[in-house]
Structures are given as structure tokens and as C-alpha cells.
Amino acid sequence: MNTETVMKTNINVKKNRKKRFPTSQAVIYLLLTFIAFLTVVPILFMIFISFKSNSQILGNFWGLPDPWMFGNYVKAFHGIWPFVLNTIAYTAVACLFIIILASVSGYVFAKKQFPGKEGIFILFLAMMMVPGLLTLIPSYVLHDQLGLTNTPWAIILQHVAGGQIFGIFLCRSFMNSLPNSLFESARIDGANEMTVFFKIVVPLSTPILATVVVMQSVGIYNDYIWPLLVIRDSAIQVVSVGLTLFASEFGTTGTGISYAGYAISSIPLLITFIFGMKYYIQGMTQGALKM
Fold it and tell me: Model confidence at 288, in pLDDT bands (50, 70, 90)?
């Protein structure tokens, strides 16, 4: 075949592709647009309602705010900011302990050999299969006997104990994909285990550690049942429970203010996703779920 024939063949193939392309792609785009619409609509309603007074909500529910009640956000901020700060502090401390334990344990399970390693790891996986509600009462009794109820440590230690299991699973799976020759070269150059871990393992595992932080942050920040059970003092309560307390203060007369509180409380999670999504995607696509 000469060059002219090949070019004509390529042009015909491209034309055929263009003829088949629009119909299938249009269906996919319409489906994705519909799913995105269903996802975004509740968020938009929350934002619009947060700028309305109660009379606007009852009289013109589907319309835009007129006027826009920016004062709702001022009242909501003063009401919920202590709960938001408490939750951010608990989440940060818990995630710090989780990534320390998960990274060290994941490295040991991935790159070290010791008797019973696979059996112990299977037990860890089995613990992931146990629903949290089944251990709710025993966990409460344990924390109460240790004197941890109605303290921040009741929330922090509970999430560290539960969150590190899934973190170990992700870290071990990710670190298995790291080449052994890299560690052997470092040891030949005189690096000890601490140097290997902090200079090689941790930097290379940044995507999966970020994945663990993002996933655990969402779980800790949104947890409702456990804080409601172990925390009685509203001064140290988390935002998920604090929002119910805040909304009950206004009742049905302050719906817009309550929705403004919901919108403000979601900002920390949005910031976490904005700054962590890049590493989150890398961690999930570079061996996070490989065994």
C-alpha cells in the first residue's frame, strides 16, 4: 500500500468513528449530567434556604432569596464555631495517630518476615468485617471504666483504634508495590531501619497516607452516634451533635439559620478534599487496593 492509500484509509476510519461517536457519547453525557444534577440539587437547596427568612421559605420555597439574609450566617457562625473547632482538633489528633500506626504497621506487614504474619493480618481484616454497632456498648463500658467518657480522648482513641485497621490494610497493600531493591540499596549504603522508614518509605507513601487521612477525616467528622453516647458536656461536643443542639435552639422559626449552620460545618471537609484529592486519587490508583 502506498502513502496515499494509507492516508485515505485513516481518513475513512476517522469518519466512521465520528459517525458512531456522538450517539453513545451523548447517552453517557446525559446520564452523567443527570447523576450530577441529583447530587448538586440538595446542596443548592441548602445554600438557597440558608439565605432565606422563615417567611420566605414558607411563602416562596422554590424561589431565590429576596432579600438575601446574610445575617443567618453570622448567627450560625457564632452558634457552631466551638463545635467545629472541637471536631477539627479531634480529627487532626486522631488522624496523626492513625497514620503513624498505620504506616509503621503497614511497612512491617509488607516488608518484614516474622512468624504468624499472614495469620495476624487476616485477623486484622476480620476485624474490619465486624459492624461498629455490635461493639458500641462494650466500647462504652470500657471507656467508662477507664474514666475516659465525657473527655476528648473518648472520641480520639475510639477512632484511632478503629481507623488504624483500614489504614494498615491500605498501607500494607501500597507498600507491597515498592521495590525491595530500593531498600536493599539503602541498607548497603549504611542506612538503618529508622532512616529507611523516614527517608524512603514515608516520602514514597505520601499518596496512600493522604488517602487514609481523607477517608478517616470524613468518618470522624461525620460521626454522630459515638459522640452522642460518650460526651455529655456541650463545651467539648462535636459538630455533628452540636448541629442538632444548635437547630433545636431556633426550632421551626429559624430554618434558614439552621441551614446556614449546616453549610458552614461542611467547609472543613471541602477544604480537606480540595487539598487532599490529588494525593487521594494517586493513592487509590497506585496500588492502594492491590493485594
Answer: very low
10 Å Cβ neighbour count for 264? 19
Question: Could you give the C-alpha distances from 106 to 111, 112, 128, 165, 235, in angstroms and in order?
Answer: 8, 10, 15, 10, 37
Q: What is the pLDDT of residues 131-170, one digit of tens each?
A: 877 888 889 999 999 999 999 999 999 999 888 888 888 8
Entry pTM: 0.81
Lookup: cell for 90: 479531634
How far is Cα 289 from Cα 73, in angstroms, rounded to an integer? 41
Q: At what angle do helices 267-285 and 255-265 cross, to 10 degrees?
A: 40
In angstroms, the CA 95 to CA 126 distance is 22
Which of 123, 130, 90 minimizes the C-alpha distance to 216?
A: 90
Asked if 243 and 83 count as a contact pair (C-beta separation under 8 A), the reply is yes
Three-class SS of 188-222:
HCCCCHHHHHHHHHHHHCHHHHHHHHHHHHHHHHH
